[in-house]
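Protein modeling request. Please complete all fields; requests missing the sequence field cannot be processed.
Requester role: graduate student
Desired output: 3D structure, token encoding
Chains: 1
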Amino acid sequence: MTVYAIAQLKMTDRAAYDRYQARFFDVFKKYGGKLLAADEHPRVLEGAWPHDKLVMMSFPDEAAFFAFSNAPDYEDISRDRKAGAQATVLLVRGFAPAG
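Delivered output (99 residues):
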């Protein structure tokens, strides 16, 4: 079942985050993920949103997501993401209608 990874980011060190971002796609494309959205100015329609960026990705299944997120090459670049932004990351299962 398709899963979606949603990251809400609050920038803390833009230079570090930019280093991460520059290397991200070379790693990401190896694991079957699709980037669905990356927006630094989403419109907040309701409630408060104290973040600077939202990223949405899809993966064919949880195994593909965890292969990506636990891969040594991702762990290497993720040091810059962790240094550059505080993150809330959600993994959401896709909807499969019954019947």
